[in-house]
Design goal:
- The structure is a homodimer of 708-residue chains.
- Chain A has 708 residues and is of the alpha+beta class.
- In chain A, the strands form three sheets. In chain A, strands 1, 2, 3, 4, 5, 6, 7, 8, 9 and 10 form a ten-stranded antiparallel sheet that branches. In chain A, strands 11, 12, 13, 16, 17, 18, 19 and 20 form an eight-stranded mixed sheet that branches. In chain A, strands 14-15 form a two-stranded antiparallel sheet.
- In chain A, a hairpin with a 2-residue loop joins strand 9 and strand 10.
- The two termini of chain A are 47 Å apart.
- At the A-B interface, helix 9, helix 10, helix 13 and helix 16 of A face helix 9, helix 10, helix 13 and helix 16 of B.
């Protein structure tokens, strides 16, 4: 709840008028990186070949980022990025989150269920084809035509090869479309993870803050054909003590920013989306906390979900604070005013030119995208709760159907995929296009433990919040619940379903629609029964919110290119980007700290009471670790959720650490970049080296990393 | 999440410019009721004598309202107003919430622990004394001088008589001060309560909505000297079928409105106060829901707290919706603009007049109250979380220290009172002035069951949320927790304290500061240890937020009288008011319903699954109840939380029902009145009569009510 003082506001306002990116701002694509400006700002000398090497050494791992650090497929990411893998490989008796995972031999490295890793190998432009596909269409027809064309493009480029994935990426909110081609690894093994507490020291309280004392790092290894993948292009491990002011580049897949949204769109987030998402998440948090206190077993089951939920919640809180901060909103308002005035000047000049030349063709063709977006907001405000709770995938919020129940999610995928696969690929919901079925299937067949007690908490919470937010008299809620209460229905479904068994899922997938419709599994029957209502919610949203927003956003993107040239970067979309900055502390109100923390600082901060208890093995190694070794550091690069695990590299292409967090104040960077506030938090290669060598007996990996 | 359509917005805007009250708007004091306008609007013929009788028949019961309905102290209020009493009188084995409470004889009526009821007997003006006390003072000195003067006035008027209570009431945000004198009853007994489900049918889902099917009524009885109080002035019971369009008056003690706040103040509520309060309440709700699912015992313990919490939460949600509704905010903005323009016109006229007469004395003396209030907001935004979490009593939010733990609250009162009683009355924190000690003491000595498991949930939640919102590095948080975690500390305090025993509390109270300082009770020691930090938070808030806000609000109040004359009513302050309207349905988007519901409608809506299960005794009486009997009705009177239990009376002074709720859309009436939307929900005397006679065998009371 801290607010910036006048001094800080003045500093922000110095950046306010800029809708064009300034020094160190921007999550740039690898095919439009501002090489000259970065070199000038940082005093470096990188080139396109350097960029290509960095790209091919960078890995997308689930929703995280990672970097290759040896020639034999070894990859560094964050520990929190392997938390689900660790949980899936653990039992209450053998709990790797508690003990760490330190395989003595490469053969003991264990496969992460459902884990996939990807390397971006090619980028090509498909803007013309995508724009042509939607030309002249409105509403849902527009969305479907675009989705179908994307599916065709992906299919043409990648069909039939399980080792590649193709993805049509919308950039600049539809201003550009690129085809990204990935080398895909579906055999990803866990090579090392520290004790969870070593990575999460300070827990939720220290999350999104600095100084920080966390070794939030882990290693995975890419396999192909049952053997470690050969990865000749990789980052060189540099565990030297880092130096303040060093220029760094961070390569990763930041998830989503909303920097190109209009003020009216931001106010919908502030007034409707964030409050609903946060309020219901907060209740789930309360339910899970109490659940975890009921027994050792529940504590084990709920640990990973609570960490994930608290992270999402705290991020949302930072965003709420940004959008309710009068100074920040003034900065955004002024930036929009600058953009609008440039746009109006160009429109006026164009009209004058056309009038002089007698050209009447342009009249009324462009419209005012800001007004169009404003007009969509009442509808978006009205439809958001139902869309978020019954369908998810709103692109703006975090709420999704089923409350995170794995069983619900599998049943939904099975039912939808069976129904969709009856149609030609181009007419399906886009996530079930032929080009995407391999991904769907691997998620579905992965072996994962299912905890009915947790599933019950999630389903019950979701059903009761859906009833509450849509109201009990909403016909869709009546369809969802019938005459059962959320408690009764969720218990019946979770207890009765057999979907926890991968063989059952596989049989239902392979049996197609006939098998689904013949199934007496209560979860499958339930999902079948709610398809009409939920699909209607989605098509309504697509027709009345998504499609008109897409068209107006494309107009805005075009206007932005016209006003600011190529000094703009696209909003983050979960695809590979490069950002740059320096190793640097922070000195604004509410956020004052130096650039580094050390192990000595960790021993100081420890109280012994959770979450400020040092992990036992780490504590036992206290005397072996040089106390002046840097643990974590702050850098000024422009990152956001999804950047977790991003390799932080120097001018020489050497890896210095892995990005794992930022600060609460930095959460405003979802909506706008502020050089003075924005700080990413990095675990250093030095800390990782010390942990591997001095704590976890992983000399094997230290050697592989080339440390002498 | 429903939003008003354009049609509804237009209807609102027709009322927008009015800062003066229109027909049926206003929670009026009994000494400034607009008799002529009400009579004209409604076609009635009430007079001051009528008002006096209604006032003397109206009762304040805890945070609720009530009406006397017999000459022997019988009082009708809502069942939810006696829920705490019912819970305190129940055990898991004898659970009156489940069975209803239907004493066969008057002697079996049971005393409500800590219950007090009050009747407003006198009102006198003390504005001059209060304004003089604060004259020339700033900051905390201003607040203290005012509080001390109020204490003196109350002491002078009421000292030494336990049957009266005096209260200096600030009206029009300090524009007027009145001395209210009450006849006080500390022996209040429960005379009848229905099965809880009969009062709460539809639970949280039907709460704040209509149509409604709830018998949310109960009876208490006032006692004096061990015998039923004689109450010759009371409402006549009228159980006739109500008629749509009938003029009604509602007398009660609405808790708090914020209709006189400036837009900047409203934005602080929207951005900071409501989000924090709602988010942490939502987490507590999750913890309590899960807690209640753990066992029958926990379900019993948590029932009352969950109902209370959900009610507060839903009300907050309605308010968030109002303040994030663009149409409603536009209406408020336009009303403020009208006010400011009138103010500026008067200022200009005044300056011109003074200039013409050569008078320079006025120059610069008045300032601009809107700008003053705007300048306070950044401080209020910054200080609110600490003030709310560590001290409470912010006047703007619902969060308070201790998380609702009864043990914490007792310890806090004991420690503070002991410290304060060492000083002269005028120098104390105002809640410990001599005139208020009797009330403090009766709350402290009341016999109430304490459930350590629930206390633990509340304390743990409060400590962890305080740490989260103020951050772990806040020195006050370090003082609060030391090296313990919230889980450890709350467990230690709750397990170790002996304060659940009323004899222990009494001994500590009577022993004064010496006994407190010598106590080894961990909760007492804990409260002693945090006094410096928490008192500092309060004095900082009072100096930098409360005092300057009070002064600016008084200027605004004066300006409002000048601009709109006496056509304004004061914000609700938990004191007795009268509001008027008609029995009437609603026909705006998101809120369309007729004026009445019947028992037939209840049988229709019942599904059997909670909370749509009919209470067993009520269900068993189905055939005995005339299905066309009206259960609940909607009226257009202007009410808000605290109005619960308010007698609804006709022109003849006969009671037709008890107010028990309003709608979610109506929650906007905290900030502004909207005739088209505003509806109160009333349980009818007809429904209560049927319940007493046909369901609960309370012919004894039916006879006392004079029903033939």
């Amino acid at each position: 709840m801290r607010h910036l003082t006048l001094a800080a506001s003045a500093a922000i306002l110095a950046f306010a008028a800029a809708s064009a990116a300034r020094a160190e701002e921007g999550m740039w694509t690898f095919d439009n990186f501002p090489i000259a400006r970065a070199n000038q700002t940082l005093g470096t000398n990188i080139d396109q070949a350097w960029l290509d090497r960095v790209r091919l050494s960078s890995v997308k791992f689930g929703g995280c980022s990672a970097g290759i650090v040896s020639g034999e497929g070894l990859v560094m990411t964050n520990n929190h990025c392997v938390a689900t893998c660790v949980a899936n490989l653990s039992t209450q008796a053998v709990n790797y989150a508690e003990t760490g995972f330190a395989p003595r031999t490469r053969e003991e490295e264990l496969k992460c269920p459902g884990g996939t890793a990807e390397i971006l190998t090619d980028i090509s432009d498909v803007t013309e084809r995508m724009h042509a596909a939607g030309a002249g269409l409105e509403g849902q027809a527009f969305t479907q035509a675009r989705d179908a064309e994307a599916g065709r493009i992906e299919q043409e480029a990648c069909a039939g090869d399980a080792t590649v994935r193709c993805q049509v990426v919308s950039l600049y909110r539809g201003g550009q479309f690129k085809l990204y081609k990935y080398r895909r690894y579906t055999d990803v093994r866990l090579a090392w993870a520290p004790e969870d507490r070593a990575a999460t020291f300070g827990g939720d309280l220290d999350n999104f803050s600095f100084p920080r004392f966390a070794i939030d790092a882990a290693f995975i290894r890419l396999y192909e054909n049952g053997a470690p993948a050969a990865t000749p292009t990789h980052f060189k491990w540099n565990a030297d003590k880092p130096v303040e002011g060093t220029p760094v580049f961070v390569a990763g897949s930041p998830g989503a920013t909303q920097r190109l949204l209009s003020m009216d769109q931001l106010m919908t987030l502030r007034d409707v989306v964030l409050p609903m998402d946060q309020l219901i998440a907060s209740e789930l948090r309360g339910r899970l906390i109490r659940f975890s206190e009921e027994s050792e077993e529940n504590a084990f089951i709920a640990m990973d979900p609570i960490v994930g939920l608290e992270n999402t919640y705290k991020r949302g809180l930072g965003r709420m604070r940004a959008l309710t901060d009068p100074d920040f909103m003034r900065m955004k308002t002024e930036a929009e005013a600058d953009f609008i005035s440039r746009w109006m000047a160009r429109e006026a000049a164009g009209a004058a030119g056309r009038a002089a030349s007698g050209d009447a063709s342009h009249a009324g063709s462009s419209g005012t995208p800001w007004l169009t977006l404003a007009a969509i907001q009442p509808t978006q405000r009205e439809l958001y709760p139902a869309m978020a709770l019954l369908e998810g995938g709103t692109g703006v919020g975090t709420t999704s159907p089923g409350g995170g129940s794995q069983l619900f999610s599998w049943a939904r995928t099975l039912v939808r995929a069976a129904q969709e696969r009856e149609k030609p690929s181009a007419q399906r919901l886009p996530e079930y296009a032929d080009s995407r079925l391999a991904g769907v299937q691997s998620g579905l067949f992965a072996e994962r433990p299912v905890y009915p007690s947790l599933e019950q908490v999630r389903m019950e919470w979701w059903l009761s919040k859906t009833r509450e937010w849509l109201t009990v008299d909403d016909p869709r809620v009546r369809g969802l619940l019938g005459r059962e209460s959320p408690e009764q229905l969720s218990a019946r479904l979770v207890e009765g379903t057999k979907l926890a068994d991968p063989a059952v899922r596989r049989a239902l997938w392979e049996g197609g629609l006939a098998a689904i419709e013949a199934s007496d599994d209560p979860m499958i029957r339930y999902l079948l029964s709610i398809q009409d209502e939920t699909r209607a919610v989605r098509s309504d949203w697509e027709a009345r919110v998504e499609a008109p927003t897409s068209r107006a956003s494309e107009q805005l993107a075009a206007a932005r290119f016209a006003a600011y040239g190529d000094a703009v970067y696209p909003d983050a979309t979960g695809t590979l980007r490069l950002t740059y900055g320096k190793i640097e502390g922070s000195d604004v109100p509410g956020q004052r700290f130096g650039a580094f923390t050390t192990f000595a600082g960790l021993w100081d901060r420890a109280t012994g009471a959770p979450p400020f208890d040092v992990a036992p093995k780490l504590l036992a190694a206290k005397d072996r670790i040089d106390p002046d070794t840097v643990m974590d550091m702050a850098v000024s690069s422009d990152t956001i959720g999804g950047s977790s695990g991003s390799p932080v590299v120097n001018e020489a292409g050497e890896i210095l650490g892995a990005n794992f967090d930022s600060t609460v104040l930095t959460q405003r960077n979802a909506y706008g970049y502020d050089r003075n506030v924005n700080r990413s938090v990095i675990v250093t290669t030095g800390a990782v080296t010390a942990a591997l060598r001095d704590v976890y007996g992983m000399e094997r990996l230290v050697e592989e990393l080339g440390v002498e």
